Amino acid sequence: MKGHIHILGICGTFMGGIALLAREQGFKVTGSDANVYPPMSIQLEAAGITLLEGYEAAHLQPAPDCVVVGNAMTRGNAAVEYMLDAGLAYTSGPQWLAENILRGKWVLAASGTHGKTTTSAMLAWILEYAGMAPGFLIGGVPADFGLSARQGDTDFFVVEADEYDTAFFDKRSKFVHYRPRTLMINNLEFDHADIFPDLAAIQRQFHHLVRTVPSQGRIICPRGVAAIDETLAQGCWSELATTAVDAEADWQARLLEDDGSVFEIHVGDGPPVIINWSHCGRHNVANALAAVAAAQHVGVLPPVAAEALCEFRGVKRRLELLGTVAGVSVYDDFAHHPTAIATTLQGLRARGSQGRLVALIEPRSNTMRMGDHRGRLASATAGADKVYWFQPRGMEWSLQEIVDDSEVAAELASDIDELVAAVAADARAGDQVVIMSNGGFGGIHARLLAALEAMV
Q: Which keywords has UniProt assigned to this entry (predicted)?
């Protein structure tokens, strides 16, 4: 046993991944969280990791060798205050990862406002399919692996590179710790209004990340995105590979089906490779294009990457089909930003269905709660036929204004039971119902499926 680490905030996707990696390395791992819930709790318990509810000083007695502090922890938290008063050794999750896992690795990082989880899952699967046995830490659970993190058997490591801050004692973005050799920047928009005052502040952090990529490294990004171009204009010392969907770039994807279920990838003078998969949406095509370009940087040829993507099974909570009851399909999606909401709905709409597209949305992220995106939310749902907005407790502004401005039929709900009953009663065979939240949404997913079953 290498020692004992205790993780504060262990059930977050990132910190849960740290726990799995530490356990795999031979550490004794325990952890605390305010809300211990699946799917992360199931992964952790299966790995023999003890989970404790809440944040109590007693959780740190006897003292672990190191406390790994999640970025949701703040001063005033009982466990944090005890840790500091007792002089316990502590570090952040990103720093622990950098020092214990990433050192000496070829790190491939997926960054950007949207698509990080899906892109990193795609890339990890491509490398696995190619026999490269990568390690990875992904902010979700890829269906092809069944777990969010592993150490891997080679020097290749895929990481989801988040721009959120590191910890209460380290306000740099998480990703500056990772030092990637291959960096994907999927997109760049304003988000995380609780820690960034404006887009320029986010661009500054992204440029810190760009500075860490070696001259022989590769930066992969979409062509013609102003926020990314402005960031790179501050200085870029690495190979730059541009991507585009149905436009000119170093790496191009061309849709062969409008919904993105079939497309081809072109690079250089080589023949195109065709991907025919079970996923949809231009955003997923863009994600796949970046993953193929990243895989090629470590020696995986595009035809092999294309074969892998044809078998890619996706990620839990990324447009995950939970079930179909009486012809009503229910999806779970992590979308919590206007752009993500719009692209997810557009992707489902392009698939084509004789029924309606119904969205249930919980604006739960800090940026949503603060109202920074309120002016874009109504238009973001234009691809749906009907929208149910759920008003979370403690939100400082009313979603009624979004309902009033909606281009499609919209209703406001503040009670989960009433919302489930209303959706179940209105559902018709052929409908696609997508539940959007970056949290548990009060267990609405299982409750809606049960309500639909009861009406059969």
A: ATP-binding, Cell cycle, Cell division, Cell shape, Cell wall biogenesis/degradation, Ligase, Magnesium, Nucleotide-binding, Peptidoglycan synthesis
E strand map for 87-130: 90-92, 106-111
Residue 61 is classified by DSSP as -
Quick one: fold of 104-310? UDP-N-acetylmuramoyl-L-alanine:D-glutamate ligase (3.40.1190)
Q: Is 118 labeled as ligand-binding?
A: yes
- Number of other CB atoms surrounding residue 371 within 10 Å: 16
To the question of whether residue 114 is assigned a binding role by annotation, the answer is: yes
Per-residue pLDDT, 372:
56
- Residue that is written with structure tokens 């059930």 in the block: 11
Q: Is 171 annotated as a binding residue?
A: no
Say how many C-beta atoms besides its own lie within 10 A of residue 408's C-beta.
Answer: 17
With CA atoms as reference, report the closest residue to 441 among 326, 359, 353, 346. Answer: 359
**443 is an annotated ligand-binding site residue:** no
Q: Pull the structure tokens for residue 11.
A: 């059930």
Query: CA nearest 74: which of 169, 5, 6, 165?
Result: 169
Paired residues of 160 in beta bridges = 110
Which of the listed ranges 213-222, 377-386, 407-416 does the model predict with the highest average pLDDT? 213-222
Percent of the chain past pLDDT 90, that is, above it, reads 58
Q: From the CB of residue 77, how many other CB atoms can be counted at a distance below 10 Å?
A: 18
**Token code pair at residue 166:** 């590191």
Average pLDDT, the chain: 90
116 is in an annotated binding site: yes
What percentage of the chain has pLDDT greater than the value 70?
Answer: 96
Residues of the chain with CATH 3.90.190.20: 320-454
**CATH 3.40.1190.10 residue spans of the chain:** 104-310
State the average pLDDT over residues 113-130: 94
pTM, rounded to two decimals: 0.82
Instruction: Say which residue the tokens 């305010």 belong to.
Output: 34
Burial of 199 from C-beta contacts in 10 A (0-12 / 13-18 / 19+): middle
Q: Is 324 annotated as a binding residue?
A: no
Q: Would the annotation count 224 as a binding residue?
A: no
Boundaries of CATH 3.40.50.720 in the chain?
A: 4-94
Q: What is the CATH number of domain 4-94?
A: 3.40.50.720
Top pLDDT among 411 and 158 is at: 158
- 320-454 belongs to CATH 3.30.70.2970: no
What digits encode the pLDDT tens for the residues 232-279? 999 999 999 999 999 999 999 999 998 889 999 999 888 999 999 988
